[in-house]
Amino acid sequence: MNNKKIFLSFNILLLILFITTILFIGIFIAWTNNYNSKLYEENTPQSIKSIIDWKVSYLTSFVLIFLSFLIIWVSQFAILITNDNGFLKSLLPLFFINKLSLHNLDTKREKRNLISLISILSIVMILSLINAWFNIYANKIQLSFIIYTLFIAVILILYIPVAFQLKINFKKALI
User: Fold this and answer.
1) What are the DSSP E strand ranges found in 14-173?
2) Where does the chain cross the membrane (predicted)?
3) Number of alpha carbons in the 13 Å side-chain half-sphere of residue 22
């Protein structure tokens, strides 16, 4: 039951983060439109006019973040399917949290699921760090750094139960 609480809390955190990312996209597009319109006023210095159009870089960055969300959800779906959950339970796990089978009795599948989960989380973490670096370096501004920090924090929160599961699996293997 404890794993189901962790699974539920992670999915809720990820959903909240997804919704805040959508809100940030709207805010950033409005802000960049306002900023870009000020670039072409007559009293703007020439050095500021040479700054790139921020809308393109923000949208590229947020598309990569959405790709990270998609990778996490597809891997979660694949792991739940391999644990003999149905298609609907795997597609909408928040609605069937009490009926989900989070662990597989086959140790080979369990190890493969754990390795794939750690690999996917590492890829998403690296992709998120690249996005944060790109956004800060390209724009010289830290407005979007908040969303990347939250995203990385949610990924790190998921590493904690994975580490505990590894510890439990190693203890079982030793016995």
Assistant:
1) none
2) 6-31, 56-80, 114-134, 146-166
3) 6
